[in-house]
Amino acid sequence: xxxxxxxxxxxxxxxxxxxxxxxxxxxxxxxxxxxxxxxxxxxxxxxxxxxxxxxxxxxxxxxxxxxxxxxxxxxxxxxxxxxxxxxxxxxxxxxxxxxxxxxxxxxxxxxxxxxxxxxxxxxxxxxxxxxxxxxxxxxxxxxxxxxxxxxxxxxxxxxxxxxxxxxxxxxxxxxxxxxxxxxxxxxxxxxxxxxxxxxxxxxxxxxxxxxxxxxxxxxxxxxxxxxxxxxxxxxxxxxxxxxxxxxxxxxxxxxxxxxxxxxxxxxxxxxxxxxxxxxxxxxxxxxxxxxxxxxxxxxxxxxxxxxxxxxxxxxxxxxxxxxxxxxxxxxxxxxxxxxxxxxxxxxxxxxxxxxxxxxxxxxxxxxxxxxxxxxxxxxxxxxxxxxxxxxxxxxxxxxxxxxxxxxxxxxxxxxxxxxxxxxxxxxxxxxxxxxxxxxxxxxxxxxxxxxxxxxxxxxxxxxxxxxxxxxxxxxxxxxxxxx
Length: 483
Prior knowledge:
- The protein is of the alpha+beta class and about 475 residues long.
- It contains 14 helices and 23 strands.
- It folds into 3 domains: about 70 residues, no CATH class; about 160 residues; about 240 residues, SGNH hydrolase (Rossmann fold, 3-Layer(aba) Sandwich), CATH 3.40.50.1110.
C-alpha cells in the first residue's frame, strides 16, 4: 500500500488511527515499535524531530498491517454510547446502609438488568455523596446466570480498568467511568457487577430501592464463579450507569420519577416495574430494538424539597441530562409534594395554590433544561391516591392533582403525554386506583398496574423514524430562548 498523495496520506492517517485503536484491544507480546508524528503521519520527515508517542505493535497488529486500510474502514462504522441501565444515587437511610465492618475487605456482587445490547460496555461508579475519596481495588463484570443467585458465567468474566489500572480512587462527590471493555451484552440480559472494597466509604452512596438482590462476602472474590455463603441485601451501592456501544441510530429513554417509577410494589428480581415493561416493549419491535430505557426513580422523591434523595430539580442534570444517548425523558413526579402538604393536617387555600403554582413552574424548568440539550420531554400524569395509607388526600388535594394533570395534558407544555392517571384510575372512582392495578396501599400500582402504565407510553410517536417529537423539542427550545 502507498500513501503518495494527499488522499493517500489521509487514508494512511485514518489507517494508523484504526491500527492504534486495534492495538489497545490486542495488547499482547511486544515485538516491534513504530513511531508516529502528527506532522509525519507515516514516517518522520528528514530534518524533523518526531515528538509523537511510541506505539507498541503486537503480533496481532502485524496481521492488521497486512490487511490494510480497507479492513479498517469496515471496522470503523459509527458507534454511540447509550445508557442501557442506570440508577439514581442518594445517601442510603441508616436502615438501608451497610455497616462499616461489612465493607472491610468485601466483595459485593450486584445484578442489573440491561435494556439495549451492544458489543462493548463501560460502567459509571459513583461517590456522589461521599465526603472523602473512595478506593476500589477491583471491579469485574460478567453475565449473571440468574438474578436470584450470585452465580456468573465464568467465560464472560472481564476485569474493568480505569485509565489502564485495575483499581480506582473516586474523589468525594464525583462519579467515574471505567475504560470501555469488549463485552457481548445481549439486550434484556442480566449483568453481574462485582466490586472489591478495602475499606468502607466515608459516607455511603447508593440506591436503596433496587428491587434486586445483591450479594457480599469477605475477601477478594470479584472473579469467583459463585459467592459461597454470601450475605444478601436488596440494595445497590456505587453503581450508577452501564453504557453499551451501539449503532449511530441508538438512543436512550430516561424514566424520571419517585417510588412509582422506582417500582414500589414490583416483584423482587422480576424486573416488572413500568420502565422495565417499557424496555421489553421496545426490545420486542425491530424498529425500536436500538432504544435503551433507564430508570432513575427514587422512592419518596419530591419535586420541590429534599426528602429521600435530592429534590427533582436538584438532581435533574445528573440523572437526566448527563445520561449517555438520552433523547427522551418521561417525567412522573409530584404525588409526594401533594401528599406531604396535608400529611399532618389541613392546609390553607393559599398554601394549596402556592404548591400547584410552584410545581408547574418546576415542570417548566425541567422542560426548558431538557430542550436546551435536545431532549424531548413526555409528561406523565399523576396517579390517583384516594384512600392512600400514606397521605389520606382530601378534596382540595384531589382538586390540586386534577389541576396539575390538566396542565400536563394541555398542548404547549410537554412534547407528549403519557396519561398514567387515565391508564390505572378506577372509572367509577377516578380519584382511586382500579382495584386490579392496586398493590394494596392505594398509592403504588401492582405489577399489573405497571404493565398498564408501560402500555400507555406513546412509543410510536416517540421513537419511529417519522416521529416529530424529538425535533419538536428543539423547536420549542428555539421559540422559548429566541435563538
